[in-house]
Amino acid sequence: MPYRARFGRKMECVSLPPLSNFAICGGTHGNELTGVYILREMQKHNVEKVGSVSITTVLSNPRAVDACRRYTDRDLNRCFTDDLLSSPITESTPYELRRAQELNAHLGPKGSEEAVDLLCDMHNTTSNMGLCIIFNSADWLILHICKYLQSKITSMPVRALQMDLPLSEAFSVDSLGKHGFSFEIGPQPHGVLRADVFNTMKEAVDLTIEWLQQFNSGRTFEGGEVEAYTRWKTVHYPRDPTTDEITAAIHPQLQDNDFKLLQPGDPIFLSLSGETVKHEGDALYPVFVNECAYYEQKIAYHLTQKSTLTLPSINVKKD
Questions:
Q1: d(C-alpha 43, C-alpha 51), whole Å
Q2: 270 pairs with which residues across the strands?
Q3: Do you know which NCBIfam families this protein is assigned to (predicted)?
């Protein structure tokens, strides 16, 4: 199961079991097209095994992909908590919850020794996030993959975003694997395929497979430091108390400035009547700024704290 990163001085080398099966998912949100088309390309070329690693490609939400919608009944990427995965299925059960339990049986079960060794779920955002690796707990293996990608990818920034949830409460597809993460890449409008975004995501997937090959072959990945952002709080749009409609837009000085330090007094909203709303409280880093899919929840952005994680060297455990 995942090993937690921590602060501190250089640690002893840690040996982990080989990673023999890698699941790559896309279309969890049916209108986020980069992952959908990467899967189609991999399936067209019958990419099922690369060296020591078996590859499983999964179109997570085929109904939503067919409709080019985020979801049909409810957000699939919020259906993987222990409580929802163990809930009884009835005639009124939403399609995405049924699908979550199918995926759990196929790729998990979550938290078990039978689960896939590594699971990557591919997402797009309308926010200016670059390439972001999102994970639930600070897993040394995932952070080493992030460190490797940061050293190889030059087309856009590569950052690590930690949700910091216990496994039982982790709600995303990637929580089904022994180790799991999501690629979040943008900006890209939903329902649109951009070549530059596609190419960077494809490069990230290929480099992850390359990393797995090197790890399984016995390479020691040296320890070091990785910057990580941890979700701290959610900021909602101002609303009209009578109609509940939003009354302001993201301020132009905040728009497209994901991961840029937000200081007290910095503009965050511009009201529809022209008034500026300023940030109050601690200096923090905004992410998912003005994400299109969050409008239904009236979420404007999340705020994160930045820290530096010290990683041990890792290599594969030998028999």
A1: 17
A2: 249, 276
A3: PRK02259.1
Per the structure, how many domains does the chain have?
Answer: 2
pLDDT tens readout for residues 112-153: 999 999 999 999 999 999 999 999 988 999 999 999 999 999
Residue 251, annotated as binding a ligand: no
Angle of helix 140-152 versus helix 195-216 axis, rounded to 10: 120
Range of the domain at 154: 14-227+311-316
Does 12 belong to an annotated binding site? no
296 known ligand binder: no
Residues 109 and 176 in one domain: yes
Q: What is the CATH number of the domain that holds 242?
A: 2.20.25.160
8 belongs to a structural domain: no
Please tell me whether residues 163 and 300 are part of one structural domain: no
Tell how strand 179-186 and strand 118-124 pair up.
parallel
The Cα 241–Cα 309 span in angstroms is: 42
User: So which residues are the catalytic ones?
Assistant: 184
Residues of the chain with pLDDT under 50: 1-9
Give yes or no for a contact between 185 and 33, defined as CB atoms under 8 angstroms apart.
no
Whether residue 207 is contained in a domain is answered as: yes
| Dihedral sign from CA coordinates of 169, 173, 176, 182 | negative
Question: Residue 269 forms beta bridges with which residues?
Answer: 250, 277
